[in-house]
Design brief:
alpha+beta; Alpha-D-Glucose-1,6-Bisphosphate, Chain A, domain 4; 9-stranded antiparallel sheet
Length: 844
Amino acid sequence: MAMVVAQQHRESSSGSIDKHLDAAGKYVRYTAEQIEALERVYAECPKPSSLRRQQLIRDCPILANIEPKQIKVWFQNRRCREKQRKEACQLQTVNRKLSAMNKLLMEENDRLQKQVSQLVCENGYMRQQLHSASAATTDASSDSAVTTPQHSLRDASNPAGLLSIAEETLAEFLAKATGTAVDWVQMPGMKPGPDSVGIFAISHSCSGVAARACGLVSLEPTKIAEILKDRPSWFRDCRSLEVFTMFPAGNGGTIELIYTQIYAPTTLAPARDFWTLRYTTNLDNGSLVVCERSLSGSGAGPNPAAAAQFVRAEMLPSGYLVRPCEGGGSIIHIVDHLNFEAWSVPEVLRPFYESSKVVAQQMTIPSLRYIRQIAQETSGEVVYGMGRQPAVLRTFSQRLSRGFNDAVNGFNDDGWSIMNCDGTEDVIVAVNSTKSLGITSSHSNSLSSLGGILCAKASMLLQNVPPAVLIRLLREHRSEWADFNIDAYSASALKASSFAYPGMRPMRFTGNPIIMPLGYTIEHEEMLEVIRLEGHSLAQEDAFVSRDIHLLQICSGIDEKAVGACSELVFAPIDEMFPDDAPLLPSGFRISPLDTKPCDTQDTLTAHRTLDLTSSLEVGPATNSASGDASSNYNARSVLTIAFQFPFENSLLDNIAAMARQYVRSVISSVQRVAMAISPSRLNPTVGPKLSPGSPEALTLAHWICQSYSYHLGTELLRSDSVGGDIVLKHLWHHPDAILCCSLKSLPVFIFANQAGLDMLETTLVALQDITLDKIFDDSGRKALYSDFAKIMQQGFACLPAGICMSTMGRHVSYEQTIAWKVLAAEETTVHCLAFSFVNWSFV
């Protein structure tokens, strides 16, 4: 029966007449001409209206014998067939991907089983050795095994031996990529799954630091190899890669001698370079391999003068294994195995250079993500803003990152020189009189008056500050640290009109910066966006002229679960026309995490840090007991690097240098204040953050607020089950009414607010200390407060009538009632501050 139906279907589809079921279940015969006419309409409008269908019947005489209802059913069936076809194609694509991923997982499982078997054998051998009486023989053999170098440097002075070096590199690389030459363990915080980019692992115990990635990519092997060999395009820390020698090898492969320079992440350490052999070849199974390792000697390599500012690092056998998949795409294995010579950096920075997690986050994972990004852009899955092509936006991101790295490193061959530094300055000022900013001919006139570029930079150690949280806070609360007039000064250099020293054109900036996203990477680990700062000139003649400033900005490393990832916020002023070849002068921040000491019990302490700075509230003796022993073992340190670049005219160099040094110091001070606010004090209670200088810790203040409210008003501020222990702080923080505390000074300023209070004032705990009490009330509110102030001090509390107050953003806030009361210290004789509760507040 099935064969008969299939045969009838083939006959109907191949003949001149087609059959379709109508709504009543009857077959309607369509001729080939009728089908062609309907298909033409369907291509223009898959879902025509009733009027359109009637018009179709009138315009096409061949459809005159078909009822409008039957035409409607034909279009419904046609849309259904189209939907089924698309779903079938999608299912086939998903099935191919799942089959390839299943194959990859099975291979990974086989490798792990071999590794387990090897470990079991080694364990049995060690047990035998422990029970053996020949301890001296065992020690001698162990010493022999340790001192035998597994990955010694090779000398390339004899070209005839390069092929043997390449073959040996290939064998060692394959043993790491698919074998058990390295004891791989899963990368923390990156479990494989259907939504993950790939499978990531780091070395457990081996010489140097190593990371590995496996993944499925919808590109052909040759295209993948071409992308990965162009290391500067995806590795942001790669300054340059130069091929000195290339000659053919067997199997259609090539051998190359390469010199690579790597930026230093901070001003406290020198940059690295590599002198390597790279071998590209095809295996018998159709796989494409690109492997690389360091060479000893200089050979035909780099000029010693050019490499004087670098420390020679070692690349142990590393590379890429790309295998084609059935049905398209490729399975890729990536291995990065390096020795950064950590002895050459200060001891505090050595954990950064000895961490396999850092190598994974900086090199291995970005390479696989970049390939996936290119694959999605090729297939049209990625949509970017402002009509920009993906390649253009990637170029902007690379230029921002490269410009910031150049400023941080300040290489002599780029024209940088240190300005009047005796080694004791906390802020380094460097000058570059030859820097061109990547200016094209269209911008040469606008920057012809520049004397050069000045960079003020500094590095500082952060203790127990979550890098991702700090970068997010710096991005979303720019007013906490930035001086918009400094941004205006830098931006003016990019315009046709000449710029002046800051202060010669006074500006006023209103509101928060407006963030306009341009694009994201596939896992949103990096964002490219345009920041608009709304400004107006204070000069009378320019009062109605807009002075908006636009900044091009990249932000990365804001995922708190990304262990070992650097967090960056880099920005540069850009013309509002946003040309593709716009000159960029990047400045910004980078936080490089130093590897934490083993203490998994504390890894979750920073998992819920939020931008409302609630972490500064988690203070008090009650929290210390839970982390007493663990806190002594926990060591979450990171290095913050700041670099700001300024254009200058030769006649103003000294003034700009003084301004830049002072500005960077003010930024450092602001960042330190923010860092103290978000630092989890439970890790080190002796240096926990305070709400303001001289204030008690948050938990103590919360108890004082609730006890004083009950003492003066005779009722509880919180529920009776919420007044004991440290739970009182949590319930006070989430209280629906806006609760704020201000100091008892001649000019009262706020020292505390719960979440509702911060939302009402549209501010943060850091900026709260800059808000005075009189700024939030209107005239009637201030009169009511002043008239009842004596009552508050005598009676202990007062109920103020409904009124209007102002947020820091200038928005009006209405409230039904305000309750004010004195907050007494523990001895109930000293008045610590005044508390206000705004009941049922809302924005007008």
